[in-house]
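Morning run. Coffee first, then this:
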Amino acid sequence: MRSFCLAASLLAACGSSTPAPVGPGSAAGSGSEVGAGSGAAPTGSGTGSVAHPLPAAAVAALAAYGSPHAAPIYVPASHKDVEHWVAFVGGDAALSAWLVTPSDPAHLLVPVAGWPVGVRVTGGVGEIGDRGLDGGEVDRDAANAYVLVESRAGMGQAAGLRGGVRIAINAPPDAPGSVVMNDRVLLALSGVTDAAAIGPRLDALAADVKAVYELLPANQLEAFATYLSSWDAAAGLIPRNGVVLGDLWQYAFIAPDADVPAPTTEVAELQGLIVRSEWFCAWTACTDGVQIAVLGVDEGHLVVRAMLRQARGPAPTADEPRAVATPRDPAEPLATARALGLLDAKVLAAGATPRGWTAVVATGDSAELIARDGDLVAASELHLDEPVAPQLVRFVDIDGDGLAEVALPHRSATGEPYTTFRRADGSSDVGAGIAAIGARTPDDAIARALAIPAYTLVPDEACAVLTRITSASSLAKEGRGTAVVYAFTEPGQPEVRHERLGQDAAAALHATFKDGCRLVCDPRRPICHTTEEGPGVTYHLFALDRTGLGLVAATVYRGS
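And here it is:
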């Protein structure tokens, strides 16, 4: 096991310093700090900095949404924009963030889009100027708030992770007050606990960004992506003092990877991470669809600063999935919806688990899925083609992780019923949806989904089964005689608009792997999907019994 900070020379990720705080008149930015020097802001109260208190009208307007959290962050006016504050609502945790503009009564409060869930605000700064983070050239009129946050526990996210969130006040113009994060800012603010350190971290980041642009112009990104697929070439991208390895949570936190071997075996470990068949590079990072390589410059050479993976929710904690039948009092979900800015919310249905609750909330013409797990509250939009009858909504722990998924009934354009499953963290349980194809009722759909056990599948195991399928007879063998292959036309939603393939099923499946088998598998369910860019993704659902691993169903995309 090794610590998160692998390299003392990683300018934006590691080390400690006690620099002077960013103050008014700074060339890089100006503003008033909240929590500078202490690393913490008062939770549950606060009306802004002493010099710039939040106006009373804004305090009263925010009270309609719930209890305040931490101290608002003041963002000074520029010659092109007025002054703002960023304020937080939620009491013990910042369930929502708000852009406050007292000079514009018609838009006094605007919710901050993309605000992370399950966080405690510990400080921050507001400043004018972007330091050249958005392309190398400094925009001295850009207004930003950099907010330090600490994670709360829930849905697999650990408590106590430290990070920073960047809020663009006046950019883009059509969506003011939006969280604007990228891999570099995430890395720069990871682990920061003192607002006084934000400015120096961002200055170091800006210098690194400028250097990457000079060594890797946009017209060479495609060639560089190919370069990463060769270890002889990629080995030179490892900086002398190592590479940060970790998991991303919400693009706000990096959880250190505690399972990486000691530094003496670092090169061998990184070879498996870096050398991939397909990379796509943009700006100052590359991705292969599973992980992100963050680029930087060290001693005049392009290097990989970090290898980061998108983190997932908790793994199954039970041997068998468990149905959730306990109704939930709508009072807490309703109060939570209000804190999230949904003053017109109505709770359609809610279900409880020992760890928390999940609720479907109607908001005008749309709907939201809101869930609590421990200290963490997550919300995600539900796209419903038609109103859902509350009595048909079901809550069920399909994957055995102790949280309730919601099973939602739908009808296709031709009137065929189908069911989709959404997890508490907002992701779709595509495996449950595929297992439920053909079910006529929500209860039938749940029974079919529960018949697929919850376990973690290794991609190599899945590929071993799939590459043996080359004909109708091998499909029957690997599918125990019952596997089905569907064609679907709705990108990312194989449960919708599908048709069962007949004689050409094996050929359609085999064609998917003409260039090799590359899969991403769900850590909670025995389902994997291919990694093609765009909508052309094939999903594969498996089951494990005493005879071994077998294919249950596959869905092949055949849209336009």
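The longest strand covers residues 119-128. Good start to the day.
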